[in-house]
Amino acid sequence: MKKCGLRVVAVVLLAVFAFSFVACGDDKNICIMDQQTEKQGCYTFLQYGLFDDDKKNPNVEYKVVAGNVVWGIILVETIVAPIILFGWYMYEPVGPKMPIGSGAIPGTER
């Protein structure tokens, strides 16, 4: 019976260790073309969450950090971890929003 208990503990520790590498969003350097000066500027865009929506830039596309959602659900009993994960680290920048221009065919999203 002891060997079975040790295996369960080992599997749980390996799962926690594996999730620790996946559950992180990153701030990202994104280069955006300025429409008025026709110059490209590179900036670092930060992650944002439900409590700091002011960090969101309308010219940047964001995605939900799936690992943080999983950790928030797993650690829901701690109360503090989900508040931090969902409040400040829910979305990460992906890249600039592309304006619809020449070469774009409407209705072909995948």
Strand and helix layout:
Elements: H1 2-22, E1 28-33, E2 40-45, E3 60-64, H2 66-74, H3 80-88, E4 91-96
Antiparallel strand pairs: 1-2, 3-4
Helix pairs in contact: 2-3
Task: Walk me through what this model shows.
- There is one protein chain.
- With 110 residues, the chain is of the alpha+beta class.
- The protein has a domain at 24-96.
- It has three helices and four strands.
- The chain has helices spanning 2-22, 66-74, 80-88, and strands at residues 28-33, 40-45, 60-64, 91-96.
- The strands form two sheets. It has a two-stranded antiparallel ribbon.
- Strand 1 and strand 2 (40-45) form a beta hairpin.
- The protein is elongated and about 70 Å long.
- The mean pLDDT is 81.
Provide the helix percentage.
25-40%
Question: What percentage of amino acids are in beta strands?
Answer: 15-25%
Number of separate strands: 4
Distance between the amino and carboxyl termini: 51 Å
Shape: elongated
Structural class: alpha+beta
From N to C, what is the helix and strand string?
A: HEEEHHE
Radius of gyration: 20 Å
In short:
This protein is of the alpha+beta class. 35% of the residues lie in helices and 21% in strands. It has a domain at 24-96.
Q: What key phrases describe this protein's structure?
A:
110 residues, alpha+beta, two-stranded antiparallel ribbon
